[in-house]
């Protein structure tokens, strides 16, 4: 039996068909899993909205502002996902996600509020006895399958991450000629942006917790660690080398995106600050340069030099890997800080005033006393010669008058329209 392709079928058409069949099988599997997980997701959203949001509203156990702080836009998310599920069950993936992406603002609002929701929930569980009993009673229902409210609140964030992977698989297994390909591609982009927002918010929250932790480690409140735009990088023990060559002293260093904080441990006998550190000095990284003195080879330990505007710091460690990590972290932090602080001059500041324009603080010379420009003088002489040669205006004179009018209508060189683009200094 011969499997040679018929003369009517072009070479390679069988492989194309096989590829499309593989795409279709993969698409069916991904679509089936998407529908099943969406059904479960909508059931979980229904548990929260029905047994918590609606009943709490009817009973008045929590004030409205507290309810909104905990549950945010989860009720709107439930309605949006019910509409999405209806499209998915009909196999209309592209149309379903196209309409779903029009309502992503409910997800972004929920994402931005999630850390506040967790905090308010913990406060209410600690202070509100009636809410604590209500929550325990609702979670004991068989529909919850031993899930707690704390487990259900983050599921919209988890679902966004799942959508990103489902949509990529669907797009990769959809023919570009299909109408759904463009719809799914746009949905991938929109949902990926929301997923990135989740990651950024998580990083920002984790950084805030680290800053608060370091702030609590420091004795007193004189040193302010919590500052807008500051990021925690690392911390650890390093030995400082005094300039006069005396004995090295171990110090605790905290590295942030804009400063290096040096501290020493408080006395363990202190009744309240025995486990804390006293800040000795804060070094700004903006004008800092870092160099590796030794530690380039496989020898034990290393030494790095930090040069500031008014100070110099030598840091040493017997662990070469540790000192190399410090060197890389410091170099990266200083480089990023200098990149952000690059001055970009405004275009207006870089505009050069024309040579013939008068300073702003001086009185402008009247037009009758200003010497005419070379071009304007030439036009005037041509007009005068034309008028002397004939009694009436000639074609040449009319042309010169037209040129004169155009010159008079030309904007001054110092105006915004005629000035060149400003340079940007990086």
TrEMBL record:
The record, for SUPFAM superfamilies, names:
DBL homology domain (DH-domain) (SSF48065), PH domain-like (SSF50729)
GO BP annotations listed: positive regulation of cell migration
Show where the PH domain sits.
Answer: 231-335
Region described as Disordered: spans on this chain: 351-426
CDD domains per the record?
A: RhoGEF
Biased amino acid composition, Low complexity: 360-372
Q: Where is the DH domain?
A: 26-201
Name under which the protein is recorded: Rho guanine nucleotide exchange factor 39
Which species expresses this protein natively?
A: Chanos chanos
Q: Which gene encodes it?
A: arhgef39
